Amino acid sequence: MKVLRTVNLKKYYGSGENQVKALDGVNLEIERGEFVAIVGTSGSGKSTLLHMLGGLDKPTSGEVYVDDKNILKLKNDALCIFRRRKIGFVFQSYNLMPVLNAYENIVLPIQLDDNTVDKAYVDNVIDILGLREKLQNLPSQLSGGQQQRVAIARALATKPAILLADEPTGNLDSKTSQDVLGLLKVTGEKFGQTIIMITHNEEIAQLADRIIRIEDGKIRNENESVKGGAEDE
């Protein structure tokens, strides 16, 4: 079952000879429960695509459907609520609130939505991510890997249908990167989330179920199966 799809998605900047086609007619379908890596070099359009998928930016033209709902037709307030309830974000910069401790950061999106924290579920996420002993620590008292785990826990806390990760290990060393990505994969499988991760790192991309390659704003290969062996490009 498709949880996300795009139709002829375009994002252009400027005009005439100075026009930049960040996305140039992207058609993409992602199944529920997939772990997909979007791979491309700097400037390929992968971050722009992720922002469109999450409703963080609007395209020049085209459509984005999440659970068969065209999110581009939602008004700003409705889109904000939809994002908060349906989509979790994990960025390279952890974006934690410095005055809140780890636990307060994790449950903040739930409280912003005036919802009750599902304590058993959140506790499960905390334990899987190995954060039990760090819940009272402020972000400044945590290592980079620990801060990223808090960011992942925050993204998972609202039980999103889709988790979007933008270079989630870009600021981490190799071992911590592998640990965080392994935990991300485990939590995705355990809680049935669809994970879409952008990266320029081929080794990290191999952890996904499928690799989508983007170049110059176009999808060059969207069916590179990691489990079954990569297709020739």
Notes on the structure:
The chain is an alpha/beta fold and 233 residues long. The protein has one domain: Rossmann fold. The protein is 33% helix and 29% strand. The chain has 7 helices and 10 strands. The protein has helices spanning 46-53, 76-86, 102-112, 119-128, 144-157, 174-191, 202-205; strands at residues 2-13, 20-31, 35-39, 61-66, 69-70, 87-91, 162-166, 194-199, 210-215, 218-225. The protein has a 6-stranded mixed beta sheet with strand order 6-7-8-3-9-10, with helices on both faces. Helix 3 (102-112) packs parallel to helix 5 (144-157), helix 4 packs antiparallel against helix 5 and helix 5 packs parallel to helix 6 (174-191).
Key terms:
single chain, 233 residues, alpha/beta, Rossmann fold, six-stranded mixed sheet, four-stranded antiparallel sheet, 10 strands, 29% strand, globular, disordered C terminus
